[in-house]
Automatic annotation (TrEMBL):
Name the record gives this protein: Phosphoribosyltransferase domain-containing protein
Top-level taxon: Bacteria
Span of domain Phosphoribosyltransferase: 21-177
Source organism per UniProt: Nocardia aurantiaca
Pfam families per record: Erythro_esteras, Pribosyltran
Length: 672
């Protein structure tokens, strides 16, 4: 599979078996309210009541219903123009009313009809019982999902008039925009999933059959306090299963059990700037290389920069220290690879390889999988051809001259011009150059170093895929992401083939962010067609792939505030409620390891959709929920998880005054 064509999936993302399972998922995300004695759960009738019953039972809280009727447009009752609450409060979408040119009398007629139905339902559900008093209480409002949110908005407005202590809205599925809107409106907003694209609430359920009045009546009269067997405390279950992982390194036997005979071990990180992630990853990788015959490490790094490091660790090239070898990483974010932890690993790998050479064994390598090095890769292709085939080098110069109109590192400017017709597309030229290099492979290898030709060919592929990536940047975000991860997967496969020997297939460790290492199919982004390197390796290699994710709760991190910005040492905010980070933090261990790929209570708990944090090279604490969290099923995303509760910022090899000044004060609002 090449990265020329993005894969787009547009089928509905059916997450929950039915409303009852959705309620159990929500209950897991609301566990922190179990200790609040003032909690009461209100289900919006009718569809929200089965969901709310499960929440109330799990929280050991009383259950009631709040009846809200949607005001449907004339001739199209499913098209909501507003909502009516049981206290007579009416909420109307003025834009829709104007668009449909509805008169006041039409609105009153619709509201009167719905008021009659609301009164009927009150009588059918309550058997004469008065609604519970919510004044001064924490009220969790539950529905089976939100689309426009009109009914929930009316419910919130009606509830606010009763002066509760706290209003929490919880739903299994809703569009991200609706979740954000309610997040600013209420004290806490819990959306188990935010499918994208969002078409209808029912698309998130296998069974979305209509709830009857009889079902609502039965659920409201079935006790939730003491009426069910309490579920096991998830924190206690995870604590009992967790293994201590000092400094983030699990026990050796646990790693042996996880890795087995896998050929690919993908080790992630939940930030690009956490020292403990880099150190633990290096320790695990060193053990895999020295004790289990792994061939090397392939990183989320540009090919030519990593190739320079590879020359050094093999005792080749002109660099005389790991610091010099890493100096090729000049592009933002330089600290991602030019840091003290990577320097120590590179020096260890050089010493390991020196010993391997003395005993007549093959060396382990250091490789890059990424595609941002378009211009540097062009230079590498030309430099190689100038040594082995000057005529071919002149053709390459002519073809790559197509890019001369943009500055060397400004691939985005090229992509913008090519995508919008403001400049020539170089697609045909880079493809011709790649084909030319591939056709001459046998002759060229015969004239020089086979490793050098492989390097040139990978650089030509990088130019080809980078050109497509930069053009795609100005279209669908998912398309450009997919092109990049497909390029990394293709590079990994080609590298594996290159390093394999008869009877001895290559075994490679991959270093990349959790966003790439984790299986995208276990996240809400899958509904938008997004895939990941980890997903592709799993699909292509099955049981020969193992994925390991890292998480943290608090500490500091090295990140920028904007693209091309300075490296800063920032404080990591405490994890959000309902996140995997909060759950693992509550276990109370400094560093732990959990296996998630085998049927177990642990897997069941971590299969529940939860928020997961992703800090990249940019960290914006002020908008953390929107910028850095997404929903995931961790047990399906990774084969194992390492959690290091408190972590520290990665130290750049050349820290500037901004980084040295220390952490950003925590002055951000807490309600985001």
């Amino acid at each position: 599979m090449t990265s020329e064509t993005a894969i787009v999936r547009d089928e509905p993302q059916q997450i929950f078996r039915d409303r009852r399972e959705a309620g159990r998922v929500l209950a897991r995300l609301l566990e922190h309210y179990r200790t609040d004695p003032d909690v009461i759960v209100l289900g919006l009738a009718r569809g929200g009541v089965p969901v709310a019953w499960e929440v109330a039972a799990a929280l050991r809280a009383p259950l009631d219903t709040l009846i809200v009727r949607k005001l449907g447009a004339p001739g199209n009752p499913e098209y909501a123009i507003g909502a009516l609450a049981s206290d007579g409060r009416v909420v109307v979408n003025d834009d829709m009313v104007r668009a449909l040119r509805l008169t006041d009398e039409q609105l009153r007629s619709i509201a009167r009809a719905e008021a009659r139905e609301l009164t009927r339902r009150e009588a059918a559900y309550r058997d004469g019982r008065a609604p519970v008093n919510v004044s001064g209480r924490t009220v969790i409002l539950v529905d089976d999902g939100l689309a426009t949110g009109a009914s929930m908005f009316a419910a919130v407005e009606a509830l606010r008039a009763e002066e509760p202590k706290r209003i929490v809205v919880a739903v299994p599925a809703a569009p991200e925009s609706t979740c954000r809107e309610f997040g600013a409106l209420v004290d806490d907003m819990v959306c188990a999933t935010m499918p994208s694209p969002f078409r209808a609430v029912g698309d998130s359920f296998w069974n979305f059959s209509q709830v009857t009045d009889e079902e609502v009546h039965t659920l409201l009269t079935t006790p939730t306090l003491g009426g069910t067997t309490p579920t096991a405390d998830p924190v206690a279950v995870l604590r009992a299963a967790a293994l201590e992982a000092p400094a983030g390194v699990p026990p050796e036997q646990a790693l042996i059990d996880l890795v087995g005979d896998a050929r690919f071990v993908l080790i992630g990180e939940s930030s690009h700037g956490t020292a403990e992630f880099y150190a633990a990853r290096a320790a695990i990788t060193g053990w895999l290389i020295s004790e289990h015959g792994f061939t090397g490490v392939a990183c989320e790094a540009d090919w030519p920069d990593a190739y320079r490091v590879d020359r050094y660790v093999r005792g080749l090239g002109t660099d005389n220290s790991p610091t010099h070898a890493l100096s090729g990483f000049e592009r933002f974010p330089a600290w991602m690879w030019r840091n003290t932890q990577v320097r120590e690993f590179v020096e260890w790998l050089r010493l390991h390889n020196d010993q391997r050479r003395r005993t007549g064994h093959e060396c382990a390598g250091f490789y890059g999988l990424d595609l941002y090095s378009m211009h540097r890769s062009m230079r590498r292709v030309i430099e190689y051809l100038e040594r082995v085939d000057p005529a071919a080098a002149r053709r390459a110069v002519q073809r790559y001259a197509c890019f001369d109109r943009v500055s060397e590192e400004d691939g985005q400017a090229y992509g913008f011009a090519a995508a919008f017709g403001a400049g020539e597309s170089c697609q045909a030229e880079v493809v011709r150059q790649l084909v030319d290099l591939q056709r001459g492979a046998v002759d060229l290898i015969g004239t020089g170093d086979g490793e050098a030709h492989f390097d040139a060919l990978r650089n030509a592929w990088t130019v080809r895929d980078a050109e497509a990536y930069y053009r795609a940047m100005f279209g669908s975000r998912v398309n450009s992401w997919n092109l990049r991860d497909q390029h990394m997967a293709d590079t990994l496969d080609t590298l594996t083939e290159h390093l394999s020997r008869p009877g001895h297939p290559a075994r490679i460790v991959v270093w990349a962010h959790n966003s790439h290492v984790g299986d995208a199919r276990a996240t809400e982004m899958a509904a938008d067609g997004q895939l990941s390197l980890g997903q592709l390796v799993r699909e292509r290699h099955g049981k020969h792939c193992r994925t390991l994710g890292f998480t943290t709760a608090t500490g500091t991190v090295t990140a920028a505030s904007r693209w091309d910005g300075a490296a800063e040492r920032k404080a990591v905010r405490a994890p959000l409620p309902s996140s995997i980070e909060e759950l693992l933090h509550d276990i109370g261990m400094p560093a732990l390891y959990l296996r998630t790929d085998r049927p177990s209570d642990v897997a069941e708990i971590l299969r529940i959709p939860r928020l997961e944090r992703a800090i990249g090279v940019i960290y914006q604490p002020g908008t953390e929920r929107q910028s850095h969290y997404f929903h995931t099923r961790a047990a399906e995303r990774y084969d194992a998880i390492i959690h290091i509760d408190h972590t520290t910022a990665l130290e750049p090899l050349v820290p500037d005054s901004t980084w040295s000044a220390g952490t950003t004060p925590e002055t951000y609002p807490t309600g985001l």
